[in-house]
């Protein structure tokens, strides 16, 4: 009984410690962001490895998510004779929820895990300590560009995801199921509001981009410097990012559309 | 890592594609609302019952969209619905005795306000009020009325 209580207490304390370390870590990275101004090349290289290399999975899953939404939505809407509203269904679900959330989940798997593994390995092989020895702050040289690149890449990826999903649904709905193309677009334009739907989706993906990259770089920086430590930090990145994205999505949705 | 030029070109393409997708969403999917920000004038309309009318619903005259519903509120003195509509500045010659009705587009579609022009020479201006209105058709009430008239014969309603 006492052992159980002790374990519970230890878990609570260590998770709060991690939260505190993560916050201080974030504060130090953010205050060091200005040092990137004279060296934009560092960020560009990271946008390449975080954003550009994630394009394939985002493009493919965007098109297929849209296509599947169109097929499933059509099967239900046709029962009510409302199949022309397919465009509205697809556009609203992609812009408000699926675009930002699925992009963030894919981002965690594709880019977040890679970030954690890369930084964790740098720590394990003592490259980070080496930098400190040379009076180079690894937070500014290694962490800050990655955080910023993730923050920049996520909304761009989410916008592409939503747009390609709507296109995929158009191909399936208008091309394969024989809906009217004009009704698809015009009903969508009537129902989708720029500020309420498009901008709120962008805000969501900005928040997710920030949280996902924060978790990824922190887990890498904070990992136990062994091969086991790196592997469990990578796992934690994916799990924690997914949970944080889903939880935040609920909160954001409740605030924005509730 | 590939050489710097290659990376820069790809990042440039990536950012451009991201903004193009965003631009596409803004223009093609959402059709940035023209009547909300662009100049128009506000007219108040009172209804007994607005049914399922929503903000941003279209306001039409002869089937042509002339404005949008701006806000919906309840008048706490008369218990009427007080709907504010914004009419595009181009349509500034609507007679003062214009009447407004709430209709449904399609069987289960969106509800909208249809204006039908009156005959006066004075025109509606910002802040005016339309008093000649016809409320939304509420299906339950309609069915109730129909059943009542079936039961009692056809001397009432």
Would you write up a description of this structure?
The complex is a heterodimer of chains A (258) and B (157). Chain A is mainly α. Chain A is 85% helix and 0% strand. The N and C termini of chain A lie far apart (43 Å). With 157 residues, chain B is an alpha/beta fold. Chain B has two domains: 1-30; 37-139. Chain B has helices at residues 4-30, 34-37, 139-152; strands at residues 40-47, 58-61, 64-74, 81-88, 99-104, 111-116, 129-130, 133-134. An eight-stranded mixed β-sheet of chain B has the order 7-1-4-3-2-6-5-8. The mean pLDDT of chain B is 82. The A-B interface holds A 41, 44-45, 47-49, 51-52, 55, 80-82, 91, 95, 153, 155-157, 159-160, 162-164, 166, 185, 188-190, 192-195, 197-198, 202 and B 1, 4, 7-8, 10-11, 13-15, 17-19, 21-22, 24-26, 28-33, 56, 58, 107-108, 110.
Largest sheet of chain B: 8 strands, mixed
Count of helical stretches of chain B: 3
SSE order of chain B: HHEEEEEEEEH
**Low-pLDDT segments of chain A:** none
Estimated radius of gyration of chain B: 23 Å
Pairing-aware structural class of the strands and helices of chain B? alpha/beta
Quickly count the helices of chain A: 9
Shape of chain B: elongated
In short:
Chain A is mainly α and 258 residues long. Chain A is built from 9 helices and no strands. In chain A, 85% of the residues lie in helices and 0% in strands.
Topology:
The complex is a heterodimer of chains A (258) and B (157).
Chain A: H1 2-31, H2 40-50, H3 55-77, H4 86-124, H5 127-133, H6 138-176, H7 181-191, H8 194-222, H9 227-257
Chain B: H1 4-30, H2 34-37, E1 40-47, E2 58-61, E3 64-74, E4 81-88, E5 99-104, E6 111-116, E7 129-130, E8 133-134, H3 139-152
Parallel strand pairs in B: 1-7, 2-6, 5-8
Antiparallel strand pairs in B: 1-4, 2-3, 3-4, 5-6
